[in-house]
Design a protein that fits this description.
single chain, 455 residues, mainly alpha, Amino acid/polyamine transporter I, binds phenylalanine
Length: 455
């Protein structure tokens, strides 16, 4: 039996797109994008972000999915099967490691969202008539170490459950139903945000750039956020691509994933910033931003009680479909390369992710004064993984696909499933070639070097 027959597969084309979109869409769009944009000046950050998404994110996502589909392997195995070099598989190994690190702190925030299902259901938001009360409540919760660690534990167990069930049954089914509902609910919250008195300032903040706020760090943050939000640079898309069949149209699916992800970030941005400015809050509040803001919005809308509860249920599920993809990468690596059973890999790495997540959960209470390079453990893990290691992973993927794999082979693989597209729009190949060979790697390198003060 060859690799194509025995490997697990997506049940349908749309199943893959939704699962990959499920990986991309998560806390990165709804929790992180608004707070990072808020800390980096709003509109100018947003524009740089969009440039990173389309000039770097889109070509790299195509490259990653293609690597996965061609090799039908995990990130390490994919490089191993295409080169004899011992160095390239390290790029994959770095990805597996980063994915695991992201999973650990990501689950902490997902745990907050999980906890907020209970908070919203308890009716406590009713008493929040000003942002100070909502913020105070959030700060009280995260300063409680037992709360943070227990929510982390429950969330990791939930993720383990889905990855344990496998590709089609667990990952695909879950994403198919839940993503569309989330989209609808976000739209409702956004409309309420826009109709709040004073929301105009929020729209200006997000769409009228003030370039004086831009510096080297803005570029790094925007690049890191693009990689983080698109689940790129660590092999999640590669692994999901490895469950694809040759008939799938990779450029088209990639574009769909990127557009959906960007749309959700914009909707979340509008929903949050209109509310932040209408209620006179601080846009640069940091990781607590949505937890300070949203309870007030729910409080100010008809049916807000139910919308609040459903919103946090869906946010938790969006986080879950992303965490699943993070855990799936480590799992696939140990199944393929170390011949572990799926069940063993899920249990071992689920428990480890929980343990490594503990210092991140404690960064908001017991360990808040413990700093690494001036950052608490949570911020440090986030900074290193999304701002440095993901772009670096993306850089190497672009170089590998652009120069090492053999570009004729790359193109003939890419053409599988997308013959129609290339027949009608031949120029798309040339554009992708220029982006993956030159524009993406050069831009990534410039941003990384610029951020450490070189050039
Ligand atoms: N893209 C996910 C989000 O936006 C997070 C993630 C990053 C998932 C990297 C997988 C890999 O929430």
């Amino acid at each position: 039996m060859n690799n194509f027959d025995k490997r697990e597969k997506w049940g349908s084309k749309i199943g893959f797109v939704l699962a990959a979109a499920g990986s991309a869409i998560g806390l990165g769009n709804i929790w992180k994008f608004p707070y990072v944009a808020g800390e980096n000046g709003g509109a100018a950050f947003f524009i740089i972000y969009i440039i990173c998404v389309f000039l770097i994110g889109l070509p790299v996502i195509i490259a990653e999915i293609l690597l996965g589909r061609t090799t039908q392997r995990n990130p390490v195995g994919a490089f191993k099967s295409l080169t004899n070099s011992r160095l390239w598989p390290f790029v994959g190994a770095m990805g597996v490691f980063v994915g695991f690190l992201i999973l650990s702190y990501y689950s902490v925030v997902a745990g907050w969202s999980l906890g907020y299902i209970y908070e919203s259901a308890s009716g406590v938001f009713y008493s929040f008539d000003n942002p100070k009360l909502a913020g105070g409540h959030f700060n009280k919760l995260i300063s409680n170490a037992t709360w943070g660690v227990s929510m982390l534990a429950i969330f990791v167990i939930l993720s383990m459950f889905f990855v344990y069930a496998g590709v089609q049954k667990g990952i695909e089914k879950g994403s198919k139903i839940l993503m569309p509902v989330l989209f609808l609910l976000l739209l409702i919250v956004m409309i309420r945000g826009i109709t709040l008195e004073g929301s105009q300032k929020g729209l200006e903040f997000l769409f009228e750039p003030d370039w004086s706020k831009v510096n080297a760090i803005t570029f790094l943050e925007a690049l890191g956020q693009a990689f983080f939000s698109l689940s790129l640079g660590m092999g999640a898309m590669l692994t999901y691509g490895s469950y694809l069949s040759k008939e799938d149209n990779i450029p088209k699916s990639s574009l769909q994933i990127v557009i959906l992800d960007t749309l959700i970030a914009i909707i979340a941005g509008v929903a949050i910033f209109t509310a932040v400015f209408a209620t006179g809050q601080n846009a640069a509040e940091g990781p607590g931003l949505i937890f300070h803001t949203l309870p007030i919005v729910f409080n100010k809308m008809p049916g807000g009680y139910f919308i609040g509860v459903i919103f946090f249920v869906l946010l938790t599920i969006a986080a879950l479909t992303s965490a699943i993809s993070l855990l799936e990468v480590v799992t696939a690596y140990f199944i393929d390369e170390k011949k572990w059973s799926r069940h063993k890999a899920v249990i071992v790495f689920g428990i480890l992710a929980f343990l490594v997540g503990i210092p991140s959960a404690l960064s908001f209470n017991v360990l808040s004064e413990t700093k690494i390079l001036g950052l608490n453990f949570f911020d440090f893990a986030d900074y290193i993984s999304s701002n440095i290691m993901l772009p670096l992973g993306g850089f190497f993927i672009a170089i590998f696909v652009g120069y090492k794999w053999g570009f004729d082979k790359v193109i003939s693989e890419l053409k599988n499933g997308s013959e129609n597209l290339f027949e009608k729009h031949l120029w798309t190949i040339s554009v992708w070639k220029i982006l993956i060979k030159f524009i993406s790697p050069i831009l990534i390198l410039l941003v990384l070097l610029h951020s450490i003060g070189i050039f």
